[in-house]
Design a protein that fits this description.
This protein is α+β, with helices and mostly antiparallel strands. The protein is built from 33 helices and 27 strands. α19 packs parallel to α24. It starts with a strand and ends in an 8-residue tail after the last helix.
Length: 974
């Protein structure tokens, strides 16, 4: 619902602003024509009590009482409902009626003004569809029942759009203005009234004229006569259109005035320029029509106010404002002025022009709707704080422009005294977007540099074990602080085309995960050369990529990317990976700060990645060397595996030259059908061996070299790059360590150095192999001599103990059967046979009569027999036999439970050969004749072995002994 005042109210208000002093007592203005048709029902007093009258109507009426109408002294004002109930009264009215506070509110106005109903009767007769302003003189029942005459102006207040009932306006209330007319006023009050009237008439800035019904001057104030330089007699009784000074100046400006006064609101205000002997003056005139009771105009009351100085000041102010506005416009600013107490009740042209808001949209708190939602509450709080404390307002925020884009605005406003009381604010706002952008860019650059320093510190401090986690943390930190949707890093394989490891941080998941979104650069012909040229690739909009980047556009579309920036990871002029930032929901323009940041970050990451890879390669080599064993063939295989890890080769070979042939004696990941080639076959490894040298040999582009025509390996396996190292031993190149790649590769200097280290390790193994062969040759010769010595000793022993020589030979047969089943190689078996053949050699120190005694030995004699195991070890020690042989001879009578001799050893303290000899010795001894007893047989011997399994004898040896007899049919051979 909207509250409006009937158009007739303007006339009444103006009339009582400047009341005519010549209204005759008892006169009344007649009934006027209705304003418009379609009047709804009146609002009754019950409507006010039940809340049917809207709050805004109530508030408007109270505001009317506070601010409408004034005279040189306070004027009684009140608001009366349509059915004559007093709603509001100002203090002068309360004083007039002798009441205090709100005592009168709700009173029957007919008791206050008995003639009220009669004066207003008939306004709603047929044809009069809206009340109009009524003016009349009526008595008022004042304090103590005293009747006072008053000039009354009753102005209707119309409430439009009543909710129930007709849609048209309804009479809400009457605003009643009282102007005292009582002849019973005290003399001092009447005297004061005349003094005020004389002051008004004589005031040099106030001019009064009254015209009669014919337009003749009925009264003119002395102040106007003085300023015109005319006497009152020269003007009185003459119409204004006669040729005198005043009429000549006003004639053109007053055209149509009489017709306007005959129409509501029966009041006209005009500002006119008047020539006077003292110069040109500007006068603001108010013309009020005066009507008889029958509605006939009886004259016009004219009140003029000299506003020359005001208008001069206003023009000066306008010129200042023009200069200020010009300055503001030149400095990209806008200005505004608020209403009282900071209320936004008048639209600002600057604001509306900038934001595109209409006047209705920006009033009240509507202007806040153009402020960015993220800044709105902060701006509102700053404005409330400033206006509540009447302090200066200052705030920066984002403001939506007419085109929809947001600009940073710096607003400042200072409080100034308002003309009608309270405080208004004069404000200036300047577009500071460029400054904010520069500040944001600088702040962002500082943030990026700080982040770079932090990441660099952590990368340099990382260990091999935590480097993957440090790299993941780096991706997450970059993503969170650059506003992108994802950050990914992909590491290239040695072919510089295939990605073998990818990691990606995404804003949606807030985590880093493995990424296989990009697996190769082979088909990315637009991106790859740019990365290889160390170029930072920026894509503001994937949809706008050039035609030659169709493969890249399809890839990035499939990943949902909108914008991206990618930096190559380069080391030693080789592309080793890629670091990329991307957005999925919004387009982004990558600026110089982004490019600089990513370039520096990529360089640091590439450097640390190379260090990390080198450390992994060193670790792989360390594991290789730690896994070395006495078997040099095993060690050569470990070297090939380490080379594969270090170089990333397709497969690795170790080829040894043997006569005219090259034999692959060790390999890693090699095909199983490698052919045997000759040293003169034109292969790369044959060339490396033939040329010798001390450094790594690199052959790139094998498919275009002479080797492609001469090497069957290259043609069969499609190798494209060969890297080999000549292995030397004994002053000659005896082998080659080779890595073959199915792509064009370039090894880093650190990888080549590790290649050399592995080649030198292979040379050490070759030298050790040659030394071992020489040692084995010497051992074989020694073994032959020992066997001859043993045969001689056995022959000597047979003369003292006929059973000993055959016993050692048979024990050797069983020991070799057991050792072979346990997986011993030839060298071990040779040593085992030597130990078995000589294990009782110590019996040469035992008297022959004890050895051949046909009866059971006494305890003392058996103690002498026990000496033979230690004596045998001592006897063989000067011959420098291998330790395994000497230990076996000494320990072959030891038992796992410690019941053996000579040292009563237990468990693992007994050597491997001795455990085998213990089982073989007992089995053969029980199976054969002895001087003191006949043979017990093999089955009793095996029962002894089975009963002592894991207690006295080694369990594994017992199981094999039992198996070779019972399942494999072993028997002693004489």
């Amino acid at each position: 619902m909207r509250l409006g005042v009937s158009p007739a109210a303007g006339g009444a208000g103006a009339l009582h602003d400047c009341p005519c002093p010549f209204v005759r007592s008892g006169s009344s203005l007649g009934t006027l024509r209705p304003i418009h048709r379609g009047m709804g029902p009146q609002l009754q007093h019950s409507d006010w009590l039940t809340g049917r009258v809207p709050d805004e109507v109530r508030a408007q009426i109270r505001r009317l009482v506070e601010v409408l109408g004034y005279l040189p002294h306070p004027q009684p004002l009140g608001v009366v409902t349509a059915d004559a109930v007093l709603l509001a009264a100002n203090q002068p009215l309360a004083d007039l009626l002798g009441a205090g506070g709100d005592e009168l509110l709700g009173a029957d106005w007919a008791d206050v003004m008995p003639g009220w109903e009669e004066r207003l009767r008939g306004w709603d007769d047929e044809g009069a569809e809206e009340p109009r302003t009524h003016t009349f003189e009526e008595h008022v029942v004042g304090e103590g029942g005293r009747e006072l005459w008053a000039h009354v102006v009753a102005t209707p207040v119309v409430a439009e759009g009543v909710e129930d009932g007709d849609a048209g306006p309804a009479l809400a209330a009457w605003t009643v203005f009282l102007s005292g007319r009582s002849a019973e006023l005290p003399d001092d009050v009447e005297r004061r009234r005349h003094e005020i009237l004389e002051l008004l008439l004589e005031s040099p800035g106030e001019y009064v004229i009254k015209l009669d019904a014919d337009g003749r001057v009925d009264f003119v104030s002395p102040s106007l006569c003085a300023v015109l330089g005319l006497s009152a007699e020269a003007l009185l009784g003459r119409p204004l259109d006669e040729a005198h000074t005043c009429a000549a100046e006003y004639q053109a400006q007053m055209a149509g005035l009489w017709e306007e006064l005959a129409r509501p609101p029966f009041s006209v205000q005009r500002e006119m320029t008047m020539a006077t002997p003292a110069g040109e003056r500007t006068v603001l005139w108010t013309f009020e029509a005066l009507f008889e009771d029958d509605g006939v105009m009886r004259g016009v009351f004219c009140l003029g106010r000299d506003v020359s100085e005001w208008r001069g000041a206003e023009r000066a102010l306008e010129r200042g404002e023009l200069r200020l506005r010009t300055l503001v416009e030149q400095t990209n600013q806008m200005t505004w002025v608020t209403g009282s107490d900071g209320a936004i009740d008048d639209p600002s042209e600057d604001w509306m022009s900038f934001t595109g808001q209409s006047a209705e949209e920006m009033l009240g708190d509507g202007w806040l709707l153009a402020v960015h939602p993220d800044d709105r509450e902060r701006v509102a709080a700053a404005w409330r704080q400033a206006t509540s404390s009447e302090s200066a307002y200052e705030c920066e925020y984002r403001l939506r422009g007419a085109a929809g884009e947001y600009r940073w605005i710096a607003s400042r406003a200072v409080p100034l005294p308002a003309a009608n009381g309270g405080t208004e604010y004069f404000g200036v706002a300047q577009d500071v977007s460029e400054r904010r952008r520069a500040e944001d860019a600088l702040r962002r650059q500082l943030d990026l540099e700080t982040m770079l320093a932090s990441i660099s510190t952590r990368l340099r401090a990382a260990q091999v074990a935590n480097m993957p986690q440090v790299l993941d943390d780096m991706l997450a930190e970059v993503g969170r602080n650059t506003g992108v949707d994802s950050v990914s890093m992909h590491e290239l394989d040695v072919d510089h085309l295939t990605f073998d490891r990818g990691r990606r941080w995404s804003r949606d998941r807030q985590s880093v995960e493995a990424s296989e979104s990009v697996t190769t650069l082979i088909e990315l012909d637009w991106l790859r050369p740019r990365l290889e040229a160390r170029e930072i690739v920026t894509v503001g909009d994937v949809a706008e990529l050039p035609a030659e980047a169709e493969a890249e556009r399809r890839l990035w579309d499939s990943l949902g990317l909108r914008s991206l920036i990618a930096a190559p990871l380069v080391f030693d002029d080789a592309l080793v990976g890629m670091l990329a930032l991307s957005t999925t929901d919004t387009l982004r323009t990558w600026d110089d700060g982004d490019i600089h940041f990513l370039r520096v970050l990529a360089d640091q990451v590439a450097s640390e990645l190379i260090w990390y890879w080198d450390e992994l390669n060193l670790a792989a080599m360390g594991e290789c060397f730690l896994s070395f064993s006495p078997d040099y063939d095993h060690n050569l295989a470990a070297i090939c595996a380490a080379l594969g890890s270090v170089s990333g080769a397709s497969f690795c070979l170790y080829d040894r030259r043997r006569g005219d042939d090259l034999l692959t004696v060790a390999s890693w990941n090699a095909p199983v059908d490698l052919p045997t080639i000759t040293a003169s076959a034109g292969t790369a490894c044959a060339d490396v061996i033939a040329q010798g040298g001390d450094d790594v040999c690199v052959i790139a582009g094998l498919e275009h070299s002479a080797h492609a025509r001469t090497s069957r390996d290259l043609n069969r396996y499609g190798a494209r790059t060969y890297i080999g190292y000549p292995v030397k031993a004994g002053g000659h190149t005896v082998a080659s360590l080779s890595a073959l790649f199915d792509a064009d590769v370039t090894l880093r200097s650190s990888q080549l150095e590790l290649f050399r280290v592995l080649g030198r390790a292979a040379a050490v193994e070759e030298a050790r192999r040659l030394d071992g062969e020489d040692r084995l040759l010497g051992l074989a010769q020694l073994e032959q001599a020992m066997e001859r010595t043993v045969a001689t000793l056995s022959g000597a022993m047979s003369t003292r103990d006929p059973y000993t020589a055959g016993h050692e030979r048979r024990v050797a047969q069983l020991a070799l059967a057991i050792g072979g089943a346990m997986g011993m190689d030839d060298a071990e078996l040779r040593l085992l046979r030597l130990a078995a053949t000589m294990h009782d050699i110590g019996k040469i120190a035992v008297p022959a009569e004890i050895l051949s005694k046909p009866t059971r030995l006494s305890e003392a004699e058996f103690a002498i027999i026990k000496v033979h195991s230690a004596a045998g070890c001592d006897l063989l020690a000067p011959a420098a036999l291998p330790g395994e042989v000497l230990i076996a001879v000494r320990q072959h009578h030891e038992r796992l439970d410690g019941s053996g001799y000579p040292d009563r050893l237990e468990g693992d303290a007994i050597g491997r050969f001795a455990r085998i000899l213990a089982v073989a010795d007992v089995t053969e001894a029980m199976s054969s004749h002895r001087p003191y007893r006949p043979a017990l047989g093999v089955e009793l011997a095996l029962e002894e072995i089975q009963s002592g399994r894991g207690v006295r004898y080694d369990a594994e040896v017992c199981d094999i002994c039992l198996r070779v007899f019972r399942e494999e049919g072993f028997s002693f051979v004489e």
